[in-house]
Write a structure and sequence with these properties.
Layout: E1 6-15, E2 20-30, E3 35-39, H1 46-53, E4 61-66, E5 69-70, H2 75-81, E6 82-85, H3 97-107, H4 112-125, H5 141-153, E7 159-163, H6 171-186, E8 190-195, H7 198-204, E9 207-212, E10 215-220, H8 222-225, E11 232-239, E12 253-258, E13 261-267, H9 271-283, E14 287-293, H10 297-305
Parallel strand pairs: 3-8, 3-9, 6-7, 7-8
Antiparallel strand pairs: 1-2, 1-4, 4-5, 9-10, 11-13, 11-14, 12-13
Helix pairs in contact: 3-4, 3-5
């Protein structure tokens, strides 16, 4: 029986004659039935790695295999065995939604009746049935994104690669989409999730790697990546728009700003002082509210990369 584990060992990809590295010595494995996350800020090298998985780019060095198949030496086989949802919209302007899904499933070798049943199930599962007969050109970005997900998973490959699958999707259907991603793993596919949305990914992945500047900074389960933050808490403060930002006390670490929301890490022993500081800012009209809670994967992500999930910038510690 074939072991359909995906393995990458020492994968390196450079540009400009070796001046710029998109990937540097990346080694990971993804097992059947597992949802594996590749997390990192924009420009970290995630999409470059995926393009090498499916044979669109060739590594300078290292190996990528799926079961007994060498994906570097056999890029056509890589595309047959892997299902890929890219960040770019699917080119389905001239097809009705259900037509695009069924055609994709049949191209991937699915039996016509089985594809039709699976198509209907997935359309219902992510609640896009009202657009079933709508041309792709008339679909909103979110519905088009969900249609792309269904196209990719109606006949899933041994590895299902999802590059930012929730982009443009509304909150309700986003939850439904995460449910389907988990179900793909339960069906036996190896799911490779590429994202910078750490808060959502934490609920879905079994294991993950955090990548920045083309390098793997840490790998493990969501819980194991938070080990270094044991004894710490997350202090979140909503600042008043238009008011100068407050000076941050030394007890706050790994500070990041998302809009007017300040997120920091604080030692448990400093919790009372942190609450007093936050309450003082509220009394002075600098902050509207605060929350103190358990460390999340995003806090570990900020510590490792210096970035917050999404487009916001981290502020200096």
């Amino acid at each position: 029986m074939t072991d359909w584990t995906f393995r990458a060992e020492g994968v390196t990809k450079s540009y400009d004659g070796g001046e710029t590295y998109a990937n540097q010595d990346i080694s990971i494995d993804v097992h059947p039935g597992e949802v594996y996350g590749l997390l990192g800020p924009n420009g970290a090298g995630k999409s470059t790695f995926v393009k090498q998985m499916i044979g669109l780019l060739k590594p300078d060095s290292g190996s990528m295999t799926l079961g007994e198949h060498d994906l570097v030496e056999a890029p056509d086989t890589a595309r047959q065995l892997c299902s890929y949802l890219p960040q770019a919209p699917m080119p389905i302007d001239s097809f009705k939604l259900h037509e695009a899904i069924r055609l994709t499933g049949e191209i991937r070798g699915g039996a016509k009746d089985a594809v039709a049943r699976r198509c209907d199930e997935l359309i219902d599962a992510v609640q896009i049935g009202e657009w079933r007969d709508t041309l792709g050109a008339k679909l909103s970005g979110g519905v088009r994104r969900l249609a792309g997900f269904v196209m990719v998973t109606v006949v899933p490959g041994r590895v299902v690669i999802l590059d930012e699958p929730t982009n443009d999707v509304d909150p309700l259907r986003r939850r439904l989409l995460w449910d389907q991603i988990r179900l793909l793993g339960e069906m036996g596919a190896a799911v490779f999730l590429v994202t910078h949305n750490v808060m959502e990914a934490e609920k879905a992945v079994d294991r993950l790697a955090v990548i920045a500047d083309g390098k793997v900074l840490a790998e493990g389960t969501p819980s194991s990546l938070k080990t270094a933050d044991r004894g710490c808490l997350r202090l979140q403060l909503m600042l008043v728009p238009g008011v100068p930002d407050p000076e941050l006390p030394p007890m706050l670490r790994h500070n990041s700003m998302v809009g007017h929301k300040l997120v920091s890490t604080i030692d448990e022993v400093d919790a009372a002082d942190g609450i007093a500081w936050a309450q003082r800012l509220m009394g002075e009209g600098v902050a509207e509210e605060y929350a103190l809670g358990a460390i999340t994967l995003e806090d570990a992500y900020i510590r490792l990369t210096g970035h917050v999930s999404g487009e916001a910038e981290a502020v200096a510690p």
